[in-house]
Design a protein that fits this description.
alpha/beta; Rossmann fold; two-stranded antiparallel ribbon; binds nicotinamide-adenine-dinucleotide; binds thymidine-5'-diphosphate
Length: about 350
């Protein structure tokens, strides 16, 4: 099986490349990534020599149809897994246009080029799949009760989630109109190794280790449904193998936690692991809320559980232990990752919040 994995140098993309190459010894992956501030080839530096024989990296943009055509021609791609995206809500508030370009127009480019190569005569070639990786955020925000199902109407609030909803809708339109073999997955908040330290968990780990303030937005009672990245990779694998064309699958492991709980747990685990008493709750600082901040996300994963047999393995607390160990063992990775462009952006837009 030949996969085109876009966004392969980002957080989930790189975890998926490791997962898939290790599980399927006869698989081959073409990794495409623009290497924005969030893409880091160091994320793929742990591939073995054998795995490197089955992986090729191409730096490029999913909006570049010429490059995409070249990739489809040269590698005879069976499956596209589209992780490539601008992924951070706070950034989308400052520069929405970049989000529309990649998360909406980029999806359309990928779909159109895949269609050119997969639709022959009047039918689709056998075994082709286009997996659009999306998010629970397209459903909007929940009150204290209830869950998002695949039938929950889309109601995005941030430029990020609106752009992801746009990408989902154009992907759905290619199925509805052309019967293109598209499947959309919507997962909850991921965490684990190689997550860029602008997202809640790695940012709090890094700041706490450096005795810096831990900025909690608003009252800290917003709820996210946490999914360990390896559990997410397993779900995508099942969707490629057994998912039904034209369907949407929600992915989440019923691990809802308030942000303030997450931050306090990180402090507790880090202090235990490092013995550093300066890592304590005095570091927490409640700051101005994120505009349009969604209150609660919670997934109903019944469909993927009953139809594809997926189940999450890690509770939030188990996944967090592993994640914190990974960051403690990879502090150089964090330093390299947050140098340069990211810091400039961070200083300009975030400090003084
Ligand atoms: P990430 O920001 O870590 O990685 C995104 C990758 O895409 C980066 O390597 C970046 O360089 C690349 N990229 C950006 N624009 C590109 C373009 N135009 N062409 C080619 N490559 C480009 O993001 P992530 O957390 O790994 O998220 C992966 C996917 O999963 C995204 O589609 C995101 O919307 C979705 N998702 C993420 C989460 C989460 O919690 N991280 C939750 C739900 C859904
Ligand atoms: P984030 O990791 O940005 O993911 P998302 O916004 O896509 O859910 O944020 C997770 C939650 O943590 C969200 O409710 C916003 C909050 N948050 C903070 O309170 N402080 C921070 O510094 C960050 C980055 C996020």
């Amino acid at each position: 099986m030949k996969l085109l994995v876009t966004g392969c140098a980002g957080f989930i993309g790189s975890n998926f490349v490791y997962y898939y190459l290790r599980k399927y010894k006869d698989s081959f992956i073409v990794g495409l990534d623009k290497l924005t501030y969030a893409g880091n080839l160091e994320n793929l530096s742990k591939l073995t020599e054998e795995e490197k024989q089955r992986f090729v990296f191409i730096r490029g943009d999913i909006n570049n149809n010429e490059l995409l055509n070249h990739i489809f021609e040269k590698y005879n791609i069976d499956v596209v897994v589209n992780f490539a995206a601008e992924s951070h809500v706070d950034r989308s508030i400052f520069e929405p246009h970049v989000f529309i370009k990649t998360n909406v127009l980029g999806v359309q480019s990928l779909l159109s080029v895949a269609m050119e190569h997969w639709f022959r005569g009047d039918k689709w070639l056998e075994g082709k799949r286009f997996i659009q990786i999306s998010t629970d955020e397209v459903y909007g925000s929940l009150g204290p009760e209830g869950y998002f199902t695949e039938n929950t109407p889309l109601d995005p609030h941030s430029p990020y989630s609106a752009s992801k909803a746009g990408g989902d809708l154009i992907a759905k339109a290619y199925y509805d109109t052309f019967k293109m073999p598209v499947i959309i997955t919507r997962c909850s908040n991921n965490y684990g190794p190689y997550q860029f330290p602008e997202k809640l968990i790695p940012l709090m780990i890094w700041n706490a280790l450096n005795h810096k303030e831990l900025p909690v937005y608003g009252d800290g009672k917003n709820i996210r449904d946490w999914l360990y990245v390896e559990d997410h990779c397993k779900a995508i694998d099942l969707v490629i193998e057994k998912g039904k064309i034209g369907e949407v699958y929600n992915i989440g492991g019923h691990n809802e936690r308030e942000n303030i709980y997450v931050v306090k747990k990180i402090i507790e685990v880090l202090r235990r692991k490092t013995g550093d008493d300066k890592i304590n709750e005095d570091l927490i600082k409640f700051v101005k809320d994120r505009p349009g901040h969604d209150r609660r996300y919670a997934m109903d994963p019944t469909k993927i559980q009953t139809e594809l047999g997926w189940k999450h393995t890690y509770s939030f607390e188990e996944g967090l232990e592993i994640t914190i160990d990974w960051y403690l063992n990879n502090l150089d990775w964090v330093r390299n990752t947050i140098s340069g462009e990211y810091l400039k952006f961070y200083e300009k837009n975030y400090l003084g919040r």
